[in-house]
Amino acid sequence: MARQDRTFHVSDEVQARLKRIRLVRRWTVAECAGRASMSAATLSSIESGKAVPSEDQLLGLASALGYERAFLSAKRDLGPTSRPWLRAYADASKREADARTALASLAVEYIRALNFKPLPDLLGPLRGDLDDAECIEEAAAEVRQLAGIESDGVVLNAIRAGERLGCLVLPLESEMGRHLGMSVRSDGLPVLCVAKAGIPGDRQRFTVAHEIGHLALHGDAAPPRDAAESSAMERQANQFAAAFLGPGDALVSTLEEVSGGRVTLTALAGVKAVWGISIKGLVGRFKSLGVISATQAESLYKQISARRWTKVEPVEVRTEAAQWFQRSLTLDVGTDDVGQACRAASARIGANASDLVSFVDWSDTNAEVVTLSARRSRVKQGDGHATR
After folding, report:
1. In the predicted model, is pLDDT for residue 357 greater than 60?
2. Per-residue pLDDT tens for 196-206?
3. Are 96 and 177 in contact (CB under 8 A)?
């Protein structure tokens, strides 16, 4: 009887792992089954837990997926992965959302298999009335403090701030529908996925802050059930991101320095050079702070649209990169060569080196950390290309 219980337990973990890797590959059941020389019905039964794979079947799946049998059959007792806070995949295809969610789960499994110790998770669910803007402002201030950011300080690197809060930050090769990122909890670990290249850095930074907001505000909430709930969650995460990146008093102080408090597109470009927040985002932030009226904000939005700044604005803000996972890996293997480290670590646990590379490769980014004093100096000198 003990042997039968063990077999069932192992098969339950195997079926979840096989499906996870298949989803990361974006293969249908039929495609994966064909590559493993079995019928789709057989693989479907294995994935659903109705059948335990034979030794030959497991070896065939391992070969198809690019893993060793030992990795696929390992017992790790991972906890569940939450669904991303997307409304019924309205803004991203189910296939893509499932693939990115599976990727987050698989990355966490690599971390457990390699015995890496993540930084402490500081993003416990925050309590309060999330329909109260002041409550969200206070939540953002609290999370800034937890991330070691001064109350009036610039977030010099949003991704690193996320890592200091205990998030595993993973790169995405491309957008997911209309989304530049997503977040989940997997085996208790907060995971944040964000597009790493091909987007302005200010959009990437806001996306990171937005997802930190989801984890802080909605960490124990289910995905939205309808459009109204989805809109409310998105609005709350956006409010959090705006407050996290631009604390009100400090932002207004910079506006005073740059333009004497006048809100023009030129002034907003100067504020952007200091804070790394998009011009369009600053319009919304100053409106919410009562610095400008709704009418003034609408006029500025029209000017932004007329100049075709909707996606690409003046003042370059460079994209950022995570470092914890990559650094843990290279230190563990003893080499600064990321590719070599991925191959060695994957061989040790019977995993796939290419998958591991996808979790730690930020090579397309061009991150630069600039101090607040240096940023303000650039603004005073009139450098319209202050970088981040």
Report:
1. yes
2. 878 899 999 99
3. yes
pLDDT tens sequence across 9-43: 446 788 999 999 999 999 999 999 999 999 999 99
Mean pLDDT on 302-316: 92
Question: Taking 70 as the threshold, does the pLDDT of residue 214 lie above it?
Answer: yes
Choose which CATH entry (3.10.150.10, 3.60.110.10, 2.60.40.2550, 1.10.260.40) describes domain 1-75. Answer: 1.10.260.40
Query: CATH 1.10.260.40 residue ranges in the chain?
Result: 1-75
